[in-house]
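Title: [Solved] Phage/plasmid-like protein 3D structure

Original question kept below for reference.
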Amino acid sequence: MDLGRLEPYAGKLARTVLRGEWCSNTVFLPDYRDLTEQSGFELETAGVLKGGKKFWALARTGQSTTLKGKDVSNGYILLATACDGTLATTAQFTSIRVVCNNTLAIALRNGSTSAGVVKVPHSTRFDAEKVKQQLGISVRAWDEHMYEMKQLSQRKVTQQEAAAYFDAVFNNTSLSIAEQDDSIIQFYRNVANEAQNAATNKTEPNGRAMSKVMDMFNGQGRGAELSSAKGTAYGLLCSITEFVDHERRAMSTDHRLDSAWFGTGAAMKQRGLEQALRMVV
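Solution (posted by the thread starter after getting help):
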């Protein structure tokens, strides 16, 4: 398969269409194929972002886990680079929830924020064998990640806790249990204020987005009614990942995907994961 000539079709990750255009930074492309072949990964799809400036590929690792309610997640490695040098050549372990195609970066809980991701500056030669060795933690990373997701799926949450969680994720706050009653009052007050102020366009910060994810958590999200997600901390996290990957306002699907994988959207999903894990420690 010629990775340098693939781009996503209609924004769908699972379909690709052949193009007759090449990235100017083709020196990196064969290394991706070498890496996937050496590591036993199966290339599933690939594409470009930012008008061809960023190249990405998703390779399936063969790992898969099913939570209660037949909620399946599969393991992937996201490979990416930028022709203009704005993104280091990156290999990142990622899980994809089948019911909604939500993506979430996987990292080891060993105190290192870089665990589970390998970045190679463009000033350094991309050594597929070395990257393979660094990614040798994949089995352990996947097992630890899915153990955490299982814990989240068993943690029931109240509406107060959900409101506090979304406030923490969107507004970078950290609420104690004692503050959660005040938080849900303020949450619904913000939603009411948003409706009242819609005509003047003076809404509370992140009010519309927080209202959207709350609705998704309460049944409107993809897979929200599965027993793994309904009323659980895992459902809270899935609401955030679905919002970032599929619903967040963006100039285009291209821009949303770029943000979800490499920008502010990725940071929001990481905050969502960290806040959710605080509920089970």
